[in-house]
Amino acid sequence: MAGTAPASRVEIPPPTMGHRPRVVIVGGGFAGTHAAKGLADLPVDITIIDRRNHFTFQPLLYQVALAVLSPANIASPIRTIVRHKQNIEVLMDEVIGFDLDQRQVHLKSGAAMDYDYLMVSAGATHSYFGHDEWAEQAPGLKTIEDAIEIRRRVLLAFELAERQMLETGSHPPLNFVVIGGGPTGVELAGAISDIAKLYMRHDFRHIDPAKARVFLIEGGPRILSAYPEELSRKAVEQLTSLGVEVYTGLQITDVQPGYVAAGDRRLDSVVTLWAAGVQPSPLGKLLGVETNRRGQVMVNQTLNPAGHPEIFVCGDLSHFEQDGNQLPGVAQPAMQMGDHVGKMIGEDLARQPRTPFRYFDKGDVATIGRMAAVAHLKWPVKANLSGFLAWVTWLTVHIFFLIGFRNRIAVLIDWIWNYFTFTRGARLIYGSEDLPGWVRQQGVRPEAETAPLDETSPGARGGV
Ligand SMILES: Cc1cc2nc3c(=O)[nH]c(=O)nc-3n(C[C@H](O)[C@H](O)[C@H](O)COP(=O)(O)OP(=O)(O)OC[C@H]3O[C@@H](n4cnc5c(N)ncnc54)[C@H](O)[C@@H]3O)c2cc1C
What we know:
This protein is α/β, with parallel strands linked by helices. The chain is built from twelve helices and 27 strands. The chain has helices at residues 30-39, 61-65, 71-74, 78-81, 144-168, 183-199, 229-241, 283-286, 331-349, 388-401, 405-421, 438-442; strands at 22-26, 45-50, 54-56, 75-77, 88-92, 95-99, 104-107, 112-114, 117-120, 124-126, 175-179, 213-217, 244-247, 254-256, 259-262, 265-268, 271-274, 278-280, 297-298, 311-313, 318-319, 321-322, 325-326, 363-369, 372-377, 383-386, 451-452. The longest helix is centred in the middle third of the chain and has 25 residues, at 144-168. The protein is elongated. The protein starts with 21 loop residues before the first strand and ends in a 12-residue tail after the last strand. The relative contact order is 0.18. The protein binds flavin-adenine dinucleotide. Flavin-adenine dinucleotide is lined by residues 26-32, 49-52, 58-59, 61-62, 94-95, 121-123, 141-142, 183-184, 281, 283, 315-317, 329-332, 334.
């Protein structure tokens, strides 16, 4: 699948009814919006179909979840992003199937949409590894709605503790458990610790938010496993100095209201968050082409499933191999694939051979907390950074890639304000006052025979 030699010229049957080729893009995320922008100057008509009306800058979702930024800072209506491109229309609908012979996309509304070219970039969602029943107790972070729900639970935990302290003189332990030590888990754990120990310290009169405990639990041998080992170690050091308790090599076997369990040990948890796994959108399998075991579509060097040069599958939903390795499910490959689809359709129209896709990896950066991050840079310099310098790199990269100039300025102002004043802009609770696990902890704790995980797990703790 790898290679840089031009692919042979691809003959796409002429568009139906003599119209300009219609390109249907399923999913207005990183890959879809990049493709649309690249295609906008070509003589084609483009339809972006997305079940949401907005593009979400997922790398900053955790900042909405932890009340640093407001949803509008990190999301833009897809319509607004492409409003100056006359040949792009946006349809808010859910794709539920495909007819590859008829070249049609089937929509939940009942409509069917014809295409000459189809690009599918529907991304990924959470995976609970066969335990979907855990989702209610341990929400994951993928959408704005998820972020608002996490924010509600985290802030509500402090509010309920304050109220209970006032009423009874005690409250359940304010334990926050994040399951999964990838970039999202690390970000969430660091940010909860930041919010509890720095930003909310003057807000309550009866509880001390700084006494909250934050646990990050990883099933594998080290956190941030995609990063060099040295950076995993630095990440643990930085998390520990923020007050996060890191456990590695610990498989969670149950998630219940008020606690999580690892075998016969358990840990009380007032809010549990899931950052342990993702799975590709079901649309990959619905295409009816070859997929890998996880359901990502196998694509060739021009991003097509076998036998379908008119279909492109990009971003998290695709399985593309380069130099023997599958590309990671992160934003950079998705954006570059989207750009490349625009280029290849341009080559088709100019009756030139398609240029194979080649991913240009600039490196990875993960934030941990206030002034704490790790960066594994590959371009413009090769370097492993941690601490303040890595954090500045993270900040710069994320501001740069934020959709829309207005968002960049708004986010920068919010960050600078929060940074110097230790305030957090969006600490609002919307929705119900119910917190799964809270009631249970007030009554008889379903205690039991099981040993508390945080006191009896020598060897599991603190390593990478
Ligand atoms: C919390 C979090 C933090 C992350 N942090 C980073 C980071 O720091 N750096 C990094 O590089 N990457 C990060 N990522 C990963 C990155 O966001 C993804 O790799 C990237 O979004 C993939 O782009 P995509 O275009 O494939 O899919 P997405 O951007 O997810 O877009 C998919 C689109 O398809 C739409 N869609 C899905 N199903 C349907 C359907 N049936 N019908 C219609 N529309 C549909 C969705 O609404 C969505 O708009 C993070 C992801 C998350 C969740």
